[in-house]
Amino acid sequence: MKAHELYTAADPELVTGMFDWFRANDRNVYKSAVATLAGNRKLRPVFVQKKPLPEQYAWMLKTLKLNACNTIGEQLLQAYLMAAQQSLLAMFCDGMGIAHDGKGSVVGDLPKKLDAERLDATIDRLIGLFDPKLLTLYLHCFNMQVPGGWPELTEKLASDGRLVLA
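Now predict its structure.
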């Protein structure tokens, strides 16, 4: 899935939580996202900024669902996961035996192949610790890190009924 497809499929509350996190913890990223999205739609950022917060979020989500906003959408997802969900990322990397910096940022090259049994065990453990929708969002984002994704992870996302975005 591409970023705009993830925003289309994701539970709006999950995306709202991401926007809330940026507003509370990294306002510069939030303001930059608003400015970039507004510019992409040929609007001035103030047009969005003057809206009440729920309307800002609704407008941003609607805009992120557009294919033209795929790049900014992917960057927002990555920034959110890397900053706000470090424990999830680190635990996934640990479970998969992927070297990381302790915060979930991969050190070195990504694996060429994922061990399906290890993937199953890691997901089984993480699904009990994290919101399954958030875990699913992360797994989709992780799968975007290599062209075409990993076949093992793609299959798991398609076949495991617990891994849904909404």
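The chain has two domains: 3-84, 86-159.
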